[in-house]
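Today's session is about reading a structure prediction critically. Students often jump straight to the picture, but the first step is always the sequence itself: look for stretches that repeat, for charged clusters, for runs of hydrophobic residues. Only then move on to the predicted structure, which in these notes is written as discrete structure tokens rather than atom positions. Here is the chain we will use throughout the hour.
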Amino acid sequence: MPPAFINTAAGDNLWIRLGKIFGQAARFVAIANESYPGSNLEDSPVPPEAYHDSIGSLLQNAYDLTVAMAYEYGSGGLSDSPSGITVPADRSRLTIARYLRAAMNQYDGHSTGATIAPGSVVSTLGKYRRHDGTSLSWGTGGAWSTVGYPLLVASTINDEGVSVPTLRTETLKATCIDAATQTVSVTGDIAYPSRSHLWPGGTATAMTMVVGENNIHRNSEMEYASSGKPSRLTYTTGGSIVAQSATQAFSNTYSMSVTGDASTKPEIRLEHGRVAGTPLTLAPNTTYILGAMLRADASISAGATIDFDICNGAGTTVYGGPYNFAADTGVGNLSTSEWRFRGVVFTTGASIADGLCSRIKFKGTALASGKIVYIDDWRCQVMRRGAPGAPPCAVWPGNIAMTRGDRIEMGVSATRADWNNWLDRMFDLHTLGVVLPTSGSPSVSSGLIA
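Below is the predicted structure for this chain, in token form.
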């Protein structure tokens, strides 16, 4: 087991030493902020450049000390020095950050890695602001009933399945710049350098994309049918209670309906890509959002779940996860009066297995007899980043087209724990794309920064 003193101020290990460095840096910054009054330094008798130079020197000195600690750590000079971790040949921020991550993953030579607290990240659905000045908010749980316009979706989840601790607080905006092609410009807030008194700011994300672009599914809108049910799909089980329905439709004319019989739990697979006869193809090292629009005709029994996932031919989940229906229709549950978006985000690895399928699988408690779930716009879209370290984004289609000047806003608020705050400011983890382990045990205590 890793040594117990990782959570105390006793002993002589890397994190105790780094905690002292960061603690001194924090006190210096506090003094500097008192010396240069004014939130933007305009009211200070000393030019902002002097403040920035002081903070810059502090961060450089702290970084140099961190590099020295890392080298002593890797050469076996500290009591928690790991085994099998090669000391990096250069001293770039990227190399040292990756080295610290590798050392944490093999803490003290053990398979259980050390972790730091991630902090918290909260995202909001935000608003749709029309070109005429009208501002609309999405309904409870992501409802589209009163809006109908596209939705900006962004992921704050990293490959470890936890909220990204280095994400910045900002408002993401997707502004329609071409109504004919439904092209939007996605931007974030300005990012400030680590020496700035305004640090950290946003992610400075900036890119253009098309609403609904890079969807790899066929018949997403359930408009094509065969034998009374949406076609181009494989009904592995439960096809008898699935139908194409014109009773409810989020877009166009039809949706998929699943009518419960208290025992059947359908499994529906999409095995082919957008071109007939071609396999469903995922790109390596790519982030996707997989989901659909959902609504119900009555409250769904507690315990009923549905998975949106990517599975292999044997039915084993490769990417994705469950969405749980509850008996009520409150926040986070299906509504009987409005469509709600539900989806999961996943990132592929460097290699992709053959024979993958996109799947909807009903699990848990079967739908009660006569209860209906409607599914429409079942999609798997690529998400893209507009800057290094920025959240991957996509624009999910609505059933109303955007007009030039329309803008979708989404707020992201990040509260970072002390270790991530200082490591990000020193190493710029945000743009390097390096996230230190934030789940598991033992945890490096923030109390060491003193």
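Discussion point for the tutorial: The longest strand covers residues 372-383.
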